[in-house]
Amino acid sequence: MPHPKKDAIRVDQLLSRYGYCSRREAHAWARAGRITLDGVPLKDTSERVDAKSVLVDGASVEAVDGLLAMFHKPLAVVCSRDGREGPSVFDLLPPQWSQRNPPVASVGRLDKDTTGLLLITDAGEWVHRWTSPKHNHEKTYEVTFEGEPKPGMVEWFASGALRLEGEGRCCLPAKLVFEGPGRALLHLVEGRFHQVRRMFAAAGLTVIRLHRPRFGPYELGDLAEGSWRLLPMPE
Ligand code: URA
Predict the structure, then answer these.
(1) In the chain, N or C terminus with fewer CB closer than 10 Å?
(2) What's the pLDDT at 1?
(3) What CATH class is the domain 138-215?
């Protein structure tokens, strides 16, 4: 049966672009019978195909351009890929996401000791858009802290006059809501290094637990720790 030529791509390119294997490995996988095209074992990896007709080990190829996912980051993993900093969030995501071309990255970072919503994407232009305060994507943090809050802290955080230690520029106005003894919500539009912990430290308080349930329009909801969910790429 003739295969559609529209959107056709070489099988070896298809598998390397979406992070399954290198082009050379694709050849070995084909020889081993792991790749089928319309149900028939494929031998020639230079063949141009429609991605939808190809199965690897019996499963369809996830050939999505513009990958976006939310991940529920657990404690004790870092957003860096540098193994010296500890286990990485990327170890908990499908390995082919990191082998794609371009690979996925996190949209900003959460500290090792912070849990919550981390966006993962291969779309570099969106990383900038979501992290730049200009675009006003509010992030919500649930903060558990030790210490006695001083009167006027809500107004100080909202004033745009809070300067973090070692920084020249003040923080943009942030919305702080006390939820109960030792518990608060903080809504930020920027994402400076350890910003929540440092803002609380500036007020003489120590953050002992930090969780981000929301990033812009996205909410973790009941997504379990360590799990991810694909999201539609915004227009
Ligand atoms: N602020 C912090 O202090 N840590 C985070 O992980 C995120 C925001």
Answers:
(1) C
(2) 46
(3) alpha beta
